[in-house]
């Protein structure tokens, strides 16, 4: 049964938010130990501290909002939403080359430091990460997603677990569906959560397989699914004279600083940055959803609320599982 989000809209009353809980129980049995306003008694200012710190960090570095949103994908998809991507050290998820370009860690650690002053040993890094990603979307004009909290932090982080669980930018629709399905997420969730690419930026080396070097050393388009004028813009920004591992391009060429449904309009215009974006238009199962979301931002926001909530409870640790880390970058 799919989650119904009409009672979990951003303008919901507290009573309506409580209606979300039995719906969440349909996703995972472990969600029974999560609750809205979990920290109301133990750390009542927790969510406000997260929101304010995210806003403050973004005022000096707007790019951090896209980084925080990306970070939750790389956490939840590997071992569940339990903060293992935050742990530093050799052989950890964070050390894997697939996570080399992740950012936003300092913001998470800053939030944790403040919370440890006011509520020591209370708020998990897993909850901080999920809330910070939620607040990043809100800060850019996206929907406010009501989220249950009470996650605990994982104690294991292994680099070898990263690659089999994250989406690579050259995946086919079938490969993406398989990974999403393994996390309990649907084809609709795949298309909706791909909408995260309406914000953020990417290094040139993440999409350079769509081009090749000609005999003169200039980039040449080889992916016919890409709009020619957009391809030329990308080739100019990712000139062969620049380092593809450091040069960045905005994911959304139209409204990169706003969380909206422009991403789907870009796909209709053949302006998806990654191959994984473009292939959504090549499969009937995903194209139909893209077309709906491109024409209805309210529908996108409603479905984002549902899909983000579902992602945020993948593999959560609750009760006596895991721990509450004192520092997000190291186990206790």
UniProtKB/TrEMBL annotation:
Cellular compartment(s): Secreted; Vacuole
Q: Where is the Plant heme peroxidase family profile domain?
A: 33-332
Chief localization:
secreted
Q: What is this protein called?
A: Peroxidase
Describe cofactor binding as the record notes it.
Binds 1 heme b (iron(II)-protoporphyrin IX) group per subunit. Binds 2 calcium ions per subunit.
Source organism of the structure: Camelina sativa
Q: Which residues cross the membrane?
A: none
Q: What does this protein do?
A: Removal of H(2)O(2), oxidation of toxic reductants, biosynthesis and degradation of lignin, suberization, auxin catabolism, response to environmental stresses such as wounding, pathogen attack and oxidative stress.
